[in-house]
C-alpha cells in the first residue's frame, strides 16, 4: 500500500489542471503582451486565471499579482515595502516564520533595519499584546504567518491585523498553507498583502500570487517590461497560471465539504495515536490547519533516532510523511520552530508531520497509525532515553 501524507510539502496536480495546461501549451502558447491574436488568446487565458484566483480570496482581480510561487510572493511583500524607504526603519515578524520571510528580514537587519521577532507560546501562537508592545513609531511593516506548515497552528490573524491597521503599518501574511484549505476573505480581514502558492492546492508548481490591497505601493524586485501592473516584470508562465486558476476555482467550489472531511480525518489520526506515550502532539489542537497532524518523539536519541529516522522508516513501509518543513528536510539541525516554542534541542530534532489531502481515506489513516505504532515499538527505547 502506497500512502502519501505530505500534502503540506506539495500536492499532485489535478487531472483537470493537467488537461487544461496541455491545451494552453498547444493552443494558447502566445506571449500575453503581444497584440496579435496569438497574444490575445494567451492574455484572455491569463486574465481568466486572475479572476479565478481572486475569487478564492474574495479579492478584486486587479489586486492579484502573479509570481512564481510562495517564496517570491513573500519576498515581494517584504522587500517591496521596505525598499520604499531611503533609510532603515523597523519591521516585525514572528519567531516561527517560513524562511521566505525570515531570510529577507535577516538580510534587511544586516542592512541596518531593526527587526523584532515576536515570541510564541508552547502551541506556536502569538499573543496580540506582544505585538502591541512591539510596535514603534517607525514600524512600517508586520509579517505574521497565517497557518504554520510544521506544527499546523493558526494565528489570530484578524486580531493581529486590526492592531497593525490601527498603528498605520502594512500587514502581510504568508497564507500558503491556508489558501485552498480554509476560507480566506480579504474584504473582511485587515490584511494588506497576502501570499499564496498554486501547488499547495493541486495546481502546478512554479505559480503563485501576492494579493495587494489597493493603495499599497510596492517597489518591484525585477527591472523589465512592467508586466503584472508594473510590479512583477517578466513574461507570465501562462500554462502554469491557467492551471493555478482552475485549481483555485475547484478548491473554492469544494472548500466547505473538503475542509470538514479533512478535519475529521485529522482528528481520527490524532485519536488513534493518543495512547502512544512516545508521540506528543505539537501545535494548537483547536486553532489548527484542517489537514495537519504533528508530533515530537518523547523518547529520542540525539542524532541517532530523530524525526528523519521515522520519515525513512515510514517511507520503507510505503508511507510518505515529513520531518519539519520540506525546505529544511536535508539539514539535521533542531527545528527553529520547535525551539521557539520552548522545546529542547533533542526534542526539536524529533518532530514529525503527517498532512492529509484529497486522496486520503479512513483506511489510509488506520493503516498509517498501525504502521507508525509498529515502528515505534521496534525503534524507541522504553525508558532510558525518554525526554519527558
TrEMBL record:
| Cofactors that this protein relies on | pyridoxal 5'-phosphate
Q: Does the keyword Iron-sulfur apply?
A: yes
EC id: 2.8.1.7
Q: Where is the Aminotransferase class V domain?
A: 3-366
- Which top-level enzyme class is recorded in the Swiss-Prot or TrEMBL entry? transferase
Q: Which keywords does this chain's UniProt record carry?
A: Iron, Iron-sulfur, Metal-binding, Pyridoxal phosphate, Transferase
Reactions catalysed, semicolon-separated, are: (sulfur carrier)-H + L-cysteine = (sulfur carrier)-SH + L-alanine
Q: Which GO terms describe its molecular function?
A: cysteine desulfurase activity; iron-sulfur cluster binding; metal ion binding
- Quote the PROSITE patterns the UniProt record gives: AA_TRANSFER_CLASS_5
Q: Which InterPro entries match?
A: Aminotrans_V_dom (IPR000192), Aminotrans_V_PyrdxlP_BS (IPR020578), Cysteine_dSase (IPR016454), PyrdxlP-dep_Trfase (IPR015424), PyrdxlP-dep_Trfase_major (IPR015421), PyrdxlP-dep_Trfase_small (IPR015422)
Q: Does the keyword Iron-sulfur apply?
A: yes
Similarity comment: family membership: Belongs to the class-V pyridoxal-phosphate-dependent aminotransferase family. NifS/IscS subfamily.
**Which NCBIfam families does this chain map to?**
PRK02948.1
Subunit composition and interactions? Homodimer.
This protein is called cysteine desulfurase
Q: Which organism is it from?
A: Leptolyngbya sp. NK1-12
Question: Where is the organism placed in the taxonomic lineage, from the top?
Answer: Bacteria, Bacillati, Cyanobacteriota, Cyanophyceae, Leptolyngbyales
Amino acid at each position: 500500500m502506497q500512502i502519501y501524507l505530505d500534502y503540506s510539502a506539495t500536492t499532485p496536480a489535478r487531472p483537470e489542471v493537467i488537461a487544461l495546461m496541455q491545451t494552453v501549451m498547444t493552443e494558447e502558447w502566445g506571449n500575453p503582451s503581444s497584440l496579435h491574436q496569438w497574444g490575445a488568446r494567451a492574455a484572455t487565458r491569463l486574465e481568466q486565471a486572475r479572476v479565478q484566483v481572486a475569487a478564492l480570496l474574495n479579492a478584486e482581480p486587479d489586486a492579484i499579482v502573479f509570481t512564481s510561487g510562495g517564496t517570491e510572493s513573500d519576498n515581494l511583500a517584504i522587500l517591496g515595502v521596505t525598499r520604499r524607504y531611503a533609510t532603515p526603519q523597523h519591521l516585525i515578524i514572528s519567531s516561527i516564520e517560513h524562511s521566505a520571510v525570515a531570510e529577507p528580514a535577516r538580510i534587511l537587519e544586516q542592512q541596518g533595519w531593526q527587526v523584532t521577532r515576536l515570541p510564541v507560546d508552547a502551541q506556536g501562537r502569538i499573543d496580540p499584546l506582544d505585538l502591541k508592545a512591539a510596535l514603534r513609531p517607525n514600524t512600517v511593516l508586520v509579517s505574521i504567518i497565517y497557518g504554520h506548515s510544521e506544527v499546523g497552528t493558526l494565528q489570530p490573524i484578524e486580531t493581529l491585523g486590526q492592531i497593525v491597521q490601527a498603528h498605520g503599518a502594512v500587514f502581510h501574511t504568508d497564507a500558503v498553507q491556508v489558501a485552498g484549505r480554509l476560507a480566506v476573505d480579504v474584504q473582511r480581514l485587515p490584511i494588506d498583502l497576502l501570499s499564496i502558492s498554486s501547488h499547495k492546492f493541486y495546481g502546478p508548481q512554479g505559480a503563485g500570487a501576492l494579493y495587494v490591497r489597493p493603495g499599497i505601493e510596492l517597489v518591484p524586485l525585477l527591472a523589465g517590461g512592467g508586466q503584472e501592473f508594473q510590479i512583477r516584470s517578466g513574461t507570465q508562465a501562462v500554462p502554469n497560471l491557467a492551471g493555478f486558476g482552475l485549481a483555485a476555482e475547484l478548491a473554492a467550489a469544494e472548500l466547505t465539504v473538503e475542509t470538514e472531511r479533512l478535519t475529521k480525518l485529522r482528528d481520527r489520526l490524532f485519536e488513534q495515536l493518543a495512547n502512544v506515550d512516545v508521540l506528543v502532539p505539537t501545535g494548537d489542537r483547536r486553532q489548527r490547519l484542517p489537514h495537519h497532524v504533528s508530533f515530537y518523539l518523547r523518547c529520542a536519541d540525539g542524532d541517532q533516532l530523530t524525526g528523519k529516522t521515522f520519515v525513512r522508516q515510514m517511507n520503507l513501509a510505503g508511507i510518505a510523511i515529513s520531518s519539519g518543513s520540506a525546505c529544511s528536510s536535508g539539514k539535521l539541525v533542531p527545528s527553529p520552530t520547535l525551539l521557539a516554542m520552548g522545546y529542547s534541542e533533542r526534542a526539536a530534532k524529533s518532530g514529525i508531520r503527517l498532512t492529509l489531502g484529497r486522496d486520503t481515506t479512513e483506511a489510509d489513516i488506520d493503516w498509517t497509525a498501525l504502521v507508525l505504532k509498529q515502528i515505534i515499538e521496534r525503534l524507541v527505547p522504553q525508558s532510558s532515553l525518554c525526554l519527558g
